[in-house]
Design brief:
By secondary structure, this protein is mainly alpha-helical. Helices cover about 45% and strands about 0% of the residues.
């Protein structure tokens, strides 16, 4: 009986020693992923694009990437170039590391592929003559005023300063933040989520011809202030300083 008691005590003591020596299994937690290793479209889009282009590619202040008409107009090379290099003079920054951004070429590819896979609808514009993304025909501002009156004034007002259905499209701050190509893209694809029709539906049954799209863009561009964000030109400021 005494031997049995000693054995039990020895086992208990040995168990206590072993439990102190053998470390407990560490908790398994997900490892942090380096920013340049993130390859999930949802994460990349949320972190880099959604603030301007909207959570689901719509309802943001910038071009709606979730608009099938836009994805029919702009091919993958165009979407990739704009994403990687940005658009100078506008709010669209360059995202590729090679252009001063934070994303790798692989991450840019993930974004371009994901945008197309989620929001393109290849059959949406079957049989429709889509205007070219960029026109080789220069626009004429004087002709553009006439085209504007025909296709745009019913919403944006006779002078483009706003109307019963839409806001100003000649506002200096707006024009200073958008390129001529951005204006052209907007005229062609519209903003369906805002009730802004595309080039086919400004005047029902009369799609806007490519040349008139170019002319309207030239007319809007002509309203862009020479010195955006400044109430006076540098020359007038200089004269004011001389007169003091």
């Amino acid at each position: 009986m005494r031997i049995l008691t000693i054995s039990i005590v020895a086992i208990l003591l040995l168990g206590g020693i072993v439990s102190k020596v053998v470390p407990s299994r560490p908790r398994t937690e997900p490892e942090a992923v380096a920013p340049d290793q993130i390859a999930d479209f949802a994460v990349l889009y949320r972190q880099n694009c959604s603030g301007c282009h909207g959570t689901n590619g719509t309802d943001g202040p910038a071009t709606p990437l979730g608009n099938p008409a836009y994805l029919a107009l702009a091919d993958d090379a165009t979407v990739r170039r704009v994403t990687a290099e940005g658009v100078a003079g506008t709010a669209m920054p360059a995202f590729a590391q090679s252009a001063g951004g934070l994303l790798t070429d692989k991450q840019i590819d993930v974004l371009v592929t994901g945008i197309r896979a989620r929001w393109a609808q290849p059959n949406t514009l079957n049989g429709v003559q889509l205007p070219p993304y960029s026109s080789h025909n220069a626009g004429d501002a004087s002709r553009g005023a006439t085209a504007y009156a025909t296709y745009c004034s019913s919403c944006h007002g006779p002078n483009g300063t706003g109307g019963p259905k839409a806001s100003s499209i000649v506002d200096g701050s707006f024009l200073a933040l958008v390129s001529d190509q951005g204006l052209r893209t907007a005229v062609i694809v519209g903003r369906p989520e805002l009730g802004f029709p595309d080039w086919r539906n400004d005047v029902p049954g009369r799609p806007m011809p490519d040349q008139q799209i170019s002319d309207v863009v030239a007319w809007m561009a002509a309203q862009r202030p020479k010195y955006p964000g400044q109430p006076y030109s540098p020359s007038s400021m200089a004269k004011a300083g001389e007169s003091r």
